[in-house]
Specification:
Helix content is 50%, strand content 15%. It is α/β, with parallel strands linked by helices. It has 3 domains: 168 residues, Beta-Lactamase; 175 residues, P-loop containing nucleotide triphosphate hydrolases (Rossmann fold), CATH 3.40.50.300; 140 residues, Helicase, Ruva Protein, domain 3, CATH 1.10.8.60. Helix 1 runs antiparallel to helix 2 and helix 15 crosses helix 17.
Length: 522
């Protein structure tokens, strides 16, 4: 008899283990709550003859208990109690729940004994015809995540512990998947919002400027936008090279994907390759995870490399290979990755001089200089200063909560007479400051620096093999053009040249300067 009983015990354990193995296989594929529910009801009812009373999960506040899953069949004949006690949130401080969560392996409540003690829940348990309520804590590691309540006549401890462990893991996975889905949805919404904002802010038609120099830029942009040709945007600091790059991207067939930007001047020399081409885990000290480079990130989109002239020579060689082969290799990696990237690069340097000085590779320059677009400096776009100023006044008035409606003629004259070494960016910042300092509806004053021209710009007028008189005449004509022909008064040429108006008139007469030289009808 002892042998028979021992054999039966072994056989029972084997059946329990086989049951748990099958259940774990079912649960391993679970990713959603309905899938877990189907797996539990299939196993509990058919194999264990057990009723799932309730699964509760602990909320993020670590106090509230929310009903996660329960058997709808138990609602029959006890709707009132079911709605009041089962399908409403509770707390971990409730007496029965607190006991279960504090226990190591769960508790067993005899239904008849609980009815005799006056437990309101026991009447609900009694209606099922089953003898015991098995209550177990659901844990992942040392953390309680909920409770499991099962009605059955008899269940082995092995089965109970196995069920609790498997269900705990399944619920933790479901919660993690739900959070990931929520984060993914949030990122998709933010991405959509960002695309909409970029479409509004960087629309091709919203680049401000209608002078002949900008018309030529628009013409070149329209010719190259639909192609995959590499574009080299040249211009001084603050002329709006990134704005042009975005406009080209938004007018291309790749506009549905975000343009990826890299500021080459801001990259440390030892991280340039990692940033552009990516790296594998363990490729170098600090490379704890695999990193996707900007070329991979911009696949089937546009990659804008700003300040390309700042790249170190070693990185230039690897960039040339990527442009030629259209494939990248991550730092520390052995696999080549094909990429379909449209390049737009920009610089404020003279790359031809950089090549002559040995600071920029000639072969890379020829690869990039396929379709150059030269952005004119603001001092050569006098006619665009007025619409730009009006745009920035409207923008910063709204941002600052001011009601600056217009700009006085005196201010326009001052703006036109300044040489703008910082170009459009300098104009934008000057207008922003002036708007913040004004308390009227009309902008009456702007705070232009006292020295309007840099030494380099002043030297632009000095040309070899010309007499002093010729250089003086050319310089006065240039200043008069910037001042729209105004000689005296605020913002006039005399003020910039720091001479009395009468003296300037005499100088012009002596040098033979007439209106035809500095003031055209157009």
């Amino acid at each position: 008899m002892a042998n028979i009983m021992a054999n039966e015990e072994v056989a029972k354990k084997q059946r329990d283990l086989a049951f748990l193995l099958d259940f774990s296989r079912d649960v391993a594929h679970v990713r959603t709550k309905p899938e877990l529910e189907a797996a539990i009801f299939r196993v509990f009812d058919k194999l264990l003859h057990t009723k799932l009373s309730l699964i509760q999960v602990i909320g993020e506040d670590s106090v509230t208990l929310y009903p996660f899953m329960y058997d709808q069949a138990l609602r029959n004949g006890s709707n009132e109690y079911f709605d009041e006690k089962v399908v409403v949130p509770g707390t971990v401080k409730e007496s029965y729940t607190a006991k279960v969560l504090a226990s190591e392996e769960g508790l067993v409540f005899n239904v008849d004994e609980e009815v005799a003690s006056g437990n309101a829940r026991a009447k609900f348990w009694k209606a099922t015809g089953l003898g015991n309520m098995y209550s177990l804590p659901l844990r992942v590691g040392d953390k309680n995540i909920g409770t499991l309540w099962l009605l059955a006549n008899s269940l082995s401890e092995l089965v109970l512990q196995g069920l609790a462990a498997q269900i705990s893991i399944a619920i933790a996975n479901i919660q993690a998947n739900e959070k990931l889905f929520a984060y993914k949805k949030q990122l998709e919404n933010e991405n959509l919002y960002l695309k909409e904002q970029i479409g509004k802010i960087y629309n091709f038609s919203e680049i401000i400027g209608s002078g002949p120099q900008m018309q030529e830029v628009y013409k070149l942009m329209s010719l190259v936008a639909d192609s995959n040709t590499t574009v080299l945007v040249l211009g001084e600091t603050g002329t709006g090279k990134e704005l042009i790059a975005r406009a080209i991207h938004n007018a291309s067939s790749r506009k549905d994907k975000l343009m990826v930007k890299v500021n080459c001047a801001a990259l440390p020399a030892n991280l340039v390759e990692s940033e552009l081409f990516g790296h594998e885990r363990g490729a170098f000290t600090g490379a704890f995870d695999r990193r996707i480079g900007k070329f991979e990130l911009a696949n089937q989109s546009t990659l804008f490399l700003d300040e390309i002239g700042e790249l170190p020579l070693e990185a230039q060689a690897k960039l040339l290979r990527v442009i030629q082969e259209r494939e990248v290799e991550r730092v520390g990696g052995k696999q080549t990755i094909k990429v379909d990237v449209r390049l737009v690069v920009a610089t404020n340097r003279d790359l031809e001089n950089e090549v002559k000085a040995g600071r920029f590779r000639a072969d890379l320059f020829f690869r990039l200089n396929v379709f150059p677009i030269n952005l004119p400096p603001l001092r050569d776009r006098i006619d665009d200063i007025e619409p730009l100023a009006e745009y920035f006044v409207a923008k910063y008035s709204k941002n600052a909560g001011r009601r600056v409606m217009k700009i006085s003629p005196r201010v326009f004259q001052q703006l036109r007479s300044y040489t703008w070494p910082g170009n459009v960016r300098e104009l934008e910042h000057l207008i922003e400051r002036s708007v913040l300092l004004t308390t009227e509806n009309t902008l009456q004053e702007v705070f232009i620096p006292r020295k309007p021209a840099t030494d380099q710009q002043e030297n632009n007028f000095i040309i070899s093999n010309r007499s002093l008189e010729e250089v003086e005449r050319a310089y006065i004509i240039e200043v008069l053009k910037r001042c729209a022909g105004k000689i005296s008064g605020t913002g006039g040429a005399a003020e910039i040249l720091k001479v009395p108006g009468n003296t300037l008139h005499s100088k012009m007469k002596k040098l033979g300067i007439t209106k035809a030289d500095y003031f055209s009808k157009s």
